Recover the amino acids of this structure.
């Protein structure tokens, strides 16, 4: 079920268009990643989606209603942690959480679960001005989720967290979104994190959403074999196949005509195939293609 629809979202500051005609949706029970370089337009897009910034053109619909015409209605169903979370420094963590949420709407079970997962009980009643960066990030996550919003927007939520806490966050947030039928838009420079929790990933570059599907490797396959010399010669003899690489017992090739079942033919001819499949780009590979960067080592 579609909860939020982003339509031609555009933001211009003076003569500079920092976000340009962005279109996508957020669906119930779905986690969507937003990936891009610094300055690509991620944070500005997120601010418009939660109503913190008004677009120059385009709009955001929530349950079919324009959020900028029904902002009070929308804000009761959305919460966000964008850039660094801000708190009242001379209140405790617990007091900050309680202050920012509707007592009638908060989800006590999830709050308690998060506090335990992040191991916060030993400092939750201390003043926030004594907290480290990681402690503040954990508190920000708890405070954002505690409101029990239907739409969550999190910008670099695990920045400053230790590895253990990051892993706990990934497991917990997936459970919350799926079981509570919420929608989450999340940005992070940690592509492993994005790849591990997201149902979909959007790439933004120079303020525009890039069609990453077109950037993925087309019709590229691999075979692993015991008699690679024979398999290599066989593949080279096929007009519809171009061998990309051969390393140890693994051959990667492109097959232009998919009507011909090459792997089946190799099995029938007793080639010793131990594994085969389609080559899938990692999120990092797609990121390099989208941004135009390369993954070669940079020498300084």
């Amino acid at each position: 079920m579609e909860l939020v629809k982003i339509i031609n979202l555009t933001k211009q500051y003076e003569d500079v268009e920092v976000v340009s005609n962005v279109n996508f949706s957020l669906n119930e029970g779905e986690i969507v990643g937003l990936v891009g370089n610094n300055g690509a337009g991620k944070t500005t897009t997120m601010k418009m989606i939660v109503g913190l910034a008004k677009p120059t053109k385009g709009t955001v619909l929530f349950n079919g209603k324009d959020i900028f015409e029904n902002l009070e209605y929308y804000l009761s169903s959305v919460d966000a942690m964008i850039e660094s979370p801000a708190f009242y420094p001379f209140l405790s963590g617990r007091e900050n959480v309680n202050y920012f949420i509707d007592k009638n709407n908060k989800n006590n079970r999830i709050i308690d679960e998060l506090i335990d997962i992040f191991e916060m009980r030993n400092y939750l009643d201390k003043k926030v001005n004594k907290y480290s960066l990681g402690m503040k990030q954990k508190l920000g996550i708890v405070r954002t989720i505690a409101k029990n919003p239907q739409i969550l927007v999190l910008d670099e939520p695990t920045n400053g967290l230790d590895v253990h806490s990051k892993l706990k966050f990934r497991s917990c947030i997936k459970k919350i979104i799926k079981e509570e039928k919420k929608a989450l838009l999340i940005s992070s420079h940690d592509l492993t994190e994005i790849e591990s929790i997201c149902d979909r990933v959007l790439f933004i570059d120079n303020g525009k959403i890039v069609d990453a599907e077109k950037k993925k490797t087309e019709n590229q396959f691999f075979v692993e074999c015991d008699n690679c010399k024979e398999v290599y010669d066989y593949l080279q003899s096929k007009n519809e196949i171009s061998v990309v690489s051969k390393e140890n017992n693994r051959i990667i090739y492109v097959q232009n005509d998919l009507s011909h079942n090459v792997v089946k033919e190799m099995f029938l001819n007793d080639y010793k195939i131990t594994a085969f499949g389609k080559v899938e780009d990692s999120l990092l590979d797609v990121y390099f293609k989208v941004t135009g960067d390369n993954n070669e080592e940079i020498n300084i």
In short: The two ends are 50 Å apart (CA to CA). Residues 217-280 form a domain with the Alpha-Beta Plaits fold (CATH 3.30.70). Residues 163-180 form the longest helix (18 residues).
